[in-house]
Amino acid sequence: MKDNFSTQAEGYSIYRPTYPQELYDYLFKLTLNKQAAWDCATGNGQVARVLAGHFEKVYATDISENQLKNALQLPNITYKVEPAEQTTAGDNSFDLITVAQAIHWFNFEAFYAEVKRTIKPDGLFAVIGYGIMYIDKKVDKAVHKLYEDILGKYWDNERRYIEENYKTIPFPFEELVAPHFQIKTTWNFNQLIGYLNTWSALQHYKKANERNPLEYMFTELKEAWGDDAEKDVHFPVLLRVGR
């Protein structure tokens, strides 16, 4: 698994969007027992902290030590620096396994073998993510220019799985038909810039060119944003659920 997020771990914890409560309610309703959950590639523990309010124990892993340093510490969450494909968890340990906005980086075959080893016979497995946000026509056009025209060749090949709404990832489980969810939030302009700075392709661009591409786009993005103090922001939630 690639570690594309250690360098911007702090920004990731501040600016990345959070999943709606309706999504969690849906998953919890399907989870038969709530003794233990594993949040794989937990990052800053965004999902793990919600799971901790419903499960006796939460096991949260990530390959980025910097990300885990920015995670919320709770007594029933155990954070470990471990790859998704090889953990120290025991067999048949978890009632729920989640992986949010990360599975596209994994070795699918090895990770799925680990899921099947560690999940309980009646456990639930959920792949979660979100696509590109939409705000309004002007801002979306400027963001698309950054995404496609400037950063296009700097996106990792795995990004295509998100663009394809996770529909093309292998999923060797008994799949449930999941409802559609959205992340709905409000941002000011600085939050938009903060979020864009967390993009992995933007970090690749900076390494290759020793400049932040937002220097070229800042004025265009600001003009597209206009005079609004805040704008509504929507992200489509990507979701595959199985047993």
TrEMBL record:
Keywords from UniProt, A to Z, are: Methyltransferase, Transferase
PANTHER family referenced in this protein's UniProt entry, alphabetically: OS01G0307686 PROTEIN
Q: Name one Pfam family in it.
A: Methyltransf_11
Tell me the first and last residues of the signal peptide: none
InterPro entries found in the cross-reference section: Methyltransf_11 (IPR013216), SAM-dependent_MTases_sf (IPR029063)
Occurrences of domain Methyltransferase type (ranges)? 39-126
Positions in coiled-coil regions: none
Q: Among its keywords, does the record have Transferase?
A: yes
Q: Has UniProt tagged this entry with the keyword Nucleotide-binding?
A: no
Q: What is this protein called?
A: SAM-dependent methyltransferase
Q: Which GO terms describe its molecular function?
A: S-adenosylmethionine-dependent methyltransferase activity
An annotated GO BP = methylation
